[in-house]
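From the methods appendix. Each design record in this collection lists the tokenized structure first, followed by the designed amino acid sequence. Records were kept in a plain field format so they could be parsed without special tools. The example shown here is representative of the layout used throughout.

RECORD:
FOLD TOKENS (273 positions):
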């Protein structure tokens, strides 16, 4: 292929281009800015579209400001409580939660991401929020972190596709709608989700819960600091709960897999008690 004069002096080999792309994804730039990809080789120097400044592309969106209208927030939480209480089955809960308009995140998300796995499982895993792939598929933990999660639990004989309650896993998140740019959910967004999370756990009635990462610890225990909390059994939603480091953290910090393995063994021992 003839080299385009625009790119003279900027040629990248495939490996470097891939590394740059991975770095951008790591920084949170996990979706294209434009609807359609631009074929820059087609563009002449005069028609060339200047990309947005790099900082604009990689900065995750800031959380929305905390509402100062606390009466409005209280009313929305009360509405969420009433809807959650009205659901007698997981299917009914999914329907009322999906229809609820109190969480602004709903407007920007592609799909409602309720749960995955076997609702009869003895173990329920509570994660943070859907990411890009989960938002696309409408299922929790199906991206890279989810693949690692499957391998981790597979190592102690648990899988989300198992029919046997003893060998299966049920997975949900604190948030069912993706926060833009994978930012942390705001305290208001967590508060609006919690009536549904509590009812979800009541209806699934697991024996044990894993709190996967900081957000579920913040939501269930009112505490963050997963590196201190992990590995110590506690109680959440009236059930024994084990905080564990999030698989996305383990992908960035492979040495931390050693402690995660110890936590999995502790979980496995508790399940066979
Ligand atoms: N991280 C989470 O906590 N949940 C998901 O569903 C995906 C990534």
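DESIGN:
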């Amino acid at each position: 292929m003839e080299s385009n004069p625009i790119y003279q002096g900027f040629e990248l080999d495939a490996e470097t281009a891939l590394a740059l792309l991975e770095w951008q994804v790591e920084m949170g730039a996990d979706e294209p800015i434009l609807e359609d990809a631009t074929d820059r080789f087609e563009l002449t120097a005069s028609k060339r579209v200047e990309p947005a400044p790099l900082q604009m592309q990689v900065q995750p969106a800031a959380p929305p400001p905390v509402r100062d209208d606390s009466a409005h927030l209280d009313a929305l939480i009360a509405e969420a409580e009433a809807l959650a209480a009205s659901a007698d089955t997981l299917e009914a809960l999914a329907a009322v939660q999906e229809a609820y308009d109190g969480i602004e995140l709903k407007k920007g998300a592609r799909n409602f991401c309720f749960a995955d796995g076997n609702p009869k499982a003895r173990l329920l895993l509570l994660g943070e929020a859907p990411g890009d792939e989960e938002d696309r598929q409408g299922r929790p933990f199906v991206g890279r972190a989810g693949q690692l999660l499957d391998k981790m639990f597979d190592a102690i004989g648990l899988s989300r596709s198992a029919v046997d309650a003893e060998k299966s896993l049920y997975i949900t998140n604190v948030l069912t709608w993706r926060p833009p740019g994978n930012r942390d959910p705001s305290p208001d967004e967590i508060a609006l989700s919690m009536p549904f999370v509590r009812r979800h756990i009541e209806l699934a009635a697991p024996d044990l819960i894993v709190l996967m990462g900081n957000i579920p610890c913040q939501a269930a225990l009112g505490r963050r600091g997963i590196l201190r909390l992990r590995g110590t059994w506690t109680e959440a939603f009236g059930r024994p709960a084990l905080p564990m480091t999030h698989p996305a953290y383990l992908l960035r910090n492979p040495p931390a897999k050693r402690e995660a393995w110890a936590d999995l063994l502790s979980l496995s021992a508790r399940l066979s008690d």
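APPENDIX NOTE: Residues 127-131, 134, 140-141, 143, 145-146, 173, 213, 248 surround uracil (CB under 6 Å).
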